[in-house]
Structure formats: C-alpha cells, structure tokens
Write a structure and sequence with these properties.
Layout: E1 2-6, E2 21-23, E3 29-32, E4 38-43, E5 51-56, E6 62-68, E7 70-73, E8 89-93, E9 102-107, E10 115-121, E11 126-128, E12 137-141, E13 160-166, E14 169-172, H1 178-190, H2 194-206, H3 216-223
Parallel strand pairs: 1-10
Antiparallel strand pairs: 2-7, 3-4, 4-5, 5-6, 7-8, 8-9, 9-10, 11-12, 12-13, 13-14
Length: 224
C-alpha cells in the first residue's frame, strides 16, 4: 500500500463532504458491490462517538475495516478507480473543523492486500469520470499560487489539477483538460478591466526583476 500526502487549497467548485455518512457515531450508509461484497459505514459498536467502515464478503467475513470520528463511502465506490478492471471502494474520513486531514482509502475487495492506496489531503478530493470514458479522475484545486505576488488568498489563482491512478501509481493528467483551463482563463480575463490590465502590464515592464528566494510561483514553475 502506498500513501500520498497532498496539501491543496479548497475552492468553490469542490463539493461538501458526502451527505450519507457516519459522524461521531451517528448515521450510516451501505453499498452492495460486485462479487457479493458489501461496503458500509455505521456507528462503532465498541467505541462510543466513533464510526466504523467495513467491507465484508457474502458470508460476513470482514476483509477491510477502519474506525474514525467521521467516515463516508465516496460516491465513486463500486467503480474501477485505478484502471485494473476491478471494482474499488473509496472510503473517506474527515477530521474536526479546522484540523487536518482528509483521508481517502482506495480498497479493492478480493485482493490479498485490499488497501491499494491512501491519500491524505488538506481539502476534499473529487473522484469522477469527467470525460465519460470509463477512467476515473481525481481532481481538486492547486494552491501553489496562493499569495503569489502579494495577492491576498481571496484573489489568488487556484488552477484545477487532475490525476488518474494506474495500479497503485498516480499520474498528473491535467493536460487532458485544457478546455477547462481555457474557460477559466477567459472568465478571469473578462473580470479584469482595461485600466487594470494596462496598469499591471506597465508595472511588470518597469519593475521586472528575478523572483525572490522561496517565491511560490517560481518554485511551482521549476517543478513542472
């Protein structure tokens, strides 16, 4: 099993935590999966105020389980998340407000080691077949430009970023979604007045200088 830690910034397009969940011992959800497996979340029987997620076989044998304060079955559960032709369950846990982190457990029932990969992130991830081609994307917003050039958080750019899994590996496939970037770029451009654009162009031209050490924009550009 591999674990990935991602620190990403939340944005308006990211949905709230799944509605059908167990939180602090309240609530439940259940999903019947191919092969007779059942994924479910419910109150923990032996840990008050906690929730338990489990995947069981037809005869009730538990093949995977975990306990946390808040757990949900991601809606993508039952689909092939990592491209190996086998249905997966994605279990997500959420910490208390203001704490870190969101955790996502990609589980393949029937495997000797069912936990395929764990993701720990600072904000929610989306699991979705955005192109309708049977391949699941994992997407969110990239906060590498938060505070760039002195902009406040509310005015900083947070571009989309897309991943796919292949087996236990994760790949950046953002280049497949150029039309999404084009649309957001056009929306951003339309929100800039002609006067502001001219002022910014003039300022950049007159005050061009090398980036400072630790500039998040420069660090990000060197990494891609």
């Amino acid at each position: 099993m591999k674990s990935v830690v991602l620190f990403l910034c939340c944005f308006a397009a990211i949905p709230a935590f799944a509605a059908r969940q167990c939180s602090q011992g309240n609530g439940s959800d259940r999903l019947e999966m191919p092969g007779g497996y059942v994924a479910q979340v419910a109150a923990s029987a032996d840990k008050p105020g906690q929730c338990r997620a489990s995947i069981t076989t037809q005869d009730g044998k538990t093949v995977y389980e975990l306990t946390d304060r808040e757990i949900a079955l991601n809606p993508i559960s039952g689909k092939d998340v990592n491209g190996d032709g086998k249905p997966d369950a994605v279990i997500e846990t959420h910490p208390a407000r203001g704490a870190c982190c969101w955790n996502y457990y990609v589980v393949t029932p029937g495997e000797e080691q069912p936990l395929l990969r764990q993701f720990a992130t600072s904000v929610p991830l989306n699991f979705e077949d955005k192109l309708g081609d049977g391949k699941v994307e994992i997407w969110t917003r990239d906060f590498a430009f938060d505070g760039v050039d002195g902009f406040p958080h509310s005015e900083s750019p947070f571009p989309l970023i897309f991943f796919r899994m292949k087996g236990a590996n994760v790949y950046n496939v953002s280049q497949l979604f150029w039309t999404d970037y084009q649309r957001e770029i056009e929306d951003a451009k339309n929100g800039i007045s002609k006067e502001d654009a001219e002022a910014l162009t003039k300022e950049e031209g007159e005050n061009a200088k090398p980036p400072q050490e630790g500039d998040p924009k420069a660090i990000h550009l060197r990494s891609v």
